[in-house]
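Hey L., structure's done. Input below.
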Amino acid sequence: MTLPTLDVTAPTIRGVVRYNGAELMLDCGVILGAHAARVHFVDHAQGYDRSALADCVTPSSFAQRLFPGTYEVSVMGYDNQIPMEGHPPGSNLPEGAILVMPSLRLP
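Output:
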């Protein structure tokens, strides 16, 4: 038995994280590969759960491939700290996740 060609679609979603409409205030120190924020995508119906890290540069952009579905999108500050003193958080975003889009539909 031969299956038909299976075409999986997963477009790349791109965006920029802002705080109260302004560019993030970044404080990533000298940590190579530091990040400013985590953008979290959850499709409860399908069980999809993906995250993208926003860069610690201005603008704080991110990109993530997502399957079609309806996603709840939240943003949280990203703590670049490793278990040592003197390593700053990535940005001025408050701790904890905030729901920024209750329903992002991807066809």
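Residues 12-106 form a domain with the Immunoglobulin-like fold (CATH 2.60.40). Residues 83-87 have pLDDT under 50 and may be disordered.

-- N.
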